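hi! just following up on the protien thing from before. the input was this:
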Amino acid sequence: MTTQLRRDTGGPEAESGQQDWFALELEGVLELLGSEHGGLTDEEAARRLAQYGPNLLPRRRPPSLPEILLRQFRSPLIYLLGIAAAVSLVIGEVKDAAFILGVLLINAIIGTVQEARAERASQALQQLLRIRTAVRRSQRVLDVDAESLVPGDVVYLESGNRVPADIRLIAAHGLEVDESLLTGESLPVAKNADWSGDPGTALADRLNMLHAGAMVARGRCHGVVVATGTKSAIGRLTLDVLGAEGGRPPLVERMEIFTRRIALAVLVAAAAIGAIGIFLGRYAVTEMFMFGVALAVSAIPEGLPVALTVALAIGTTRMAKRGVIVRRLAAVEGLGSCTLIASDKTGTLTCNELTVQQVRAPDGRKFTVSGEGFVPEGDVLLGDLPVPPDQVQTLGGRARPAPQWNQAGGGARPRGGAGGAGPPPQGGGSHA
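and the predicted 3d structure came back as:
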């Protein structure tokens, strides 16, 4: 019977989230977690999921449609145009007021449509990136969403699997893990369940631990979950990133400067013309005031916000055709203003995956292999024609053109096939 999570030590969900699980004996880890080698029961897992919440990384709440709409009016130039519309109504220029308000509405609609579309695409992409993993519960191995993992779960991983949470290894066989997302080290790290370290050992040197976000490059293993969500190493890193203040787009800064200058110039010009009319032209004060207001309203460029929004929307559409999702229109101009971009390479600009793209047979034939990374989908092509599955199996005896062929096992399989070995029927197979 699975015992409840020990509270005297804070457990994996302690406020600090910094328990040195790697420095403890395995049996001590299981005892503190209230778990066993056979994992949790379904009932205990459900109780812990309700108590600790899903295994999700922190993220900003996506804006609602009204929030996106209101965001389109947060601009100094928009404020100035709104004031101009209000003044036009006061002085009786209804047509001018209606025109300005129409321009503001068109600008808001264009911006809202573009940003709402980008938000939907971003949310859909996040759904596609959901991880499934094999977990032992109630003495059987289940394939579940990584979101449902809780501290104390025993999970199984093999080549090609993404590590779903922070895990203390129980057993490992030829295990090598890509931890570049956390450490920046592009080479896989060999893991050992029997390794023991001192408290305070650096994350990159904890050889009996797997951390969420890492990728299993070779081998297979099983271990017990010790931290999920924000308590994991990548969860704490994500919180730090979300807490950082972002810079303002150059377009917003330039628009604020332009708005201040044009407002000052219009006010000075209207005041000067009014003074000249009163003192030299002998016009009434009321008459010159109305004239100055009309001049100020007419001098404000009503079409500028729409022109900017349309130009940014066109740039966003062109980038979308190249597979780039732009969530904020101003980000297009901000990216165009960049002269230097500092970025991590491994896992950001590159996938850190070896994928066979071409196979040359002994008879001189050249085969092309499609597919990416560890996704078990793809085709083997001879010229522009796909190779029949039975011939692909024959090719597999000579060479192995797939991500799994670069690993320790698995041969060629038709589309959708899976390779590798291990307790659970996990993904990570060949392209072909």
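Residues 65-125+247-336 form one domain.
The chain has three domains: 21-55+149-240, 65-125+247-336, 353-432.
cheers
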